[in-house]
Design goal:
By secondary structure, this protein is α/β, with parallel strands linked by helices. The chain has 9 helices and 12 strands. It has a domain of 209 residues: Rossmann fold (3-Layer(aba) Sandwich). It binds NADP nicotinamide-adenine-dinucleotide phosphate (NAP).
């Protein structure tokens, strides 16, 4: 059982209106943890003056940065904006955390890798993004590492949830509009439920809080961690699983014909890694956090 005194912990969440942000809000409420949620409208992550006041006034003990520019294809033509949100924003947050001597839990992506490997990527494997989004996220990681020693960088992938825009929701919408769909079958990754990412981040934040206050005698482990779903699959395989679950639940009347297509058949402005399976052993060892059971999450979600 955790020895964390959640009363003295105050988590600040940026990007609170995104899909991960909303899952974090749900979890923090459910766990009774004191928190402050900031949407982009409440405070831009680059607005150091506003954030500094909030951190000081509320006595924030750690920041979880769920804010990001996530439009992978659009980033190719909006590089400046993507840089501002994915590089400059995390850099500003990292400097603030360092000034207040509090941890920054920052979220990154499998798209920092080029996908040429054929075995799961470890945290120490060579990064080589293939597009603007991945490059700005990697630069954001570097900035966080440079400016804040108390950092957790959680790389995740293929995020889905009941909130926002994601592959699951797109597939379910298309299934109601069309009888036949083509879905890419030569990109392999690990779907990850945003609610599980939220739980993982909160669990780490609690353990860091514990270690910082020396309640458990444990040392705080900072650094880069991979956190994704427990089973690699192609987008095609993910789509089939989504349809089968929705059909079983009765939220999808009939399953469309799903054709496996290749990346070459579905050109996009940004090149994506063909293989971006992440190894999750380190987060298990250091924080006792298990991979996201994405099929179980698909089963639980009652999207219509
Ligand atoms: N989605 C995926 O498949 C995926 C895969 C791998 C990694 N990730 C990473 O996971 C994290 C969470 O992703 P997500 O899917 O939850 O993203 P999301 O739904 O796009 O949410 C991002 C949120 O950040 C906010 N935001 C953007 N610019 C901001 C700024 N300058 N200041 C404050 N807030 C700002 C957005 O506000 P607006 O709504 O106003 O734009 C949005 O609410 C990100 O770090 C992302 O890179 C995601």
């Amino acid at each position: 059982m955790s020895a964390v005194d959640t009363q003295s912990m105050h988590l600040l969440v940026t990007g609170a209106n995104g899909q991960l942000g909303q899952c974090l809000a749900d979890q923090l409420r459910a766990q009774g943890i004191t928190h402050t949620l900031l949407s982009r409208q409440d405070a831009d992550i680059n607005d150091t003056v506003v954030l500094e006041k909030i951190i000081g006034d509320k006595g924030v003990t750690a920041i979880i940065n769920a804010a990001a520019y996530t439009a992978v294809d659009k980033a190719e033509s909006e590089a400046e904006l993507a840089k501002r949100i994915n590089e400059d924003g995390p850099a500003a947050l990292a400097k603030l955390c360092s000034r207040f001597d509090i941890p920054l839990l920052h979220v990154s992506t499998d798209y920092v890798f080029d996908g040429n490997q054929q075995t799961p990527y470890a945290e120490t494997d060579q990064t080589a993004p293939t597009g603007v989004y991945g490059q700005t996220k990697l630069n954001g990681e570097i900035a966080v590492q440079r400016h804040c020693s108390k950092h957790i960088i959680l790389r995740t992938a293929w995020v889905f949830s009941e909130y926002g825009n994601n592959f699951m929701k797109t597939m379910l919408r298309l299934a109601k509009e069309r009888d036949t769909l083509g879905v890419v079958a030569d990109q392999i990754g690990c779907p990850t439920y945003a609610g599980d990412i939220a739980k993982a981040l909160i669990s780490i934040a609690k353990q860091l809080h514990d270690a910082e206050h020396n309640k458990s005698g444990a040392q705080a482990d900072y650094g880069v961690y991979h956190y994704v779903g427990d089973e690699p699959v192609s987008w095609y395989g993910f789509a089939v699983a989504i349809f089968e679950e929705a059909h079983k639940r009765g939220s999808l009347k009939s399953i469309p014909i799903v054709n496996a297509i290749s990346t070459a058949d579905y050109p996009t402005p940004a090149k994506r890694p063909a293989y971006s399976v992440l190894r999750t052993a380190k987060i298990g060892q250091d924080y006792d956090v298990l991979p996201s059971e994405w099929r179980a999450a698909c089963e639980r979600l009652s999207l219509t």
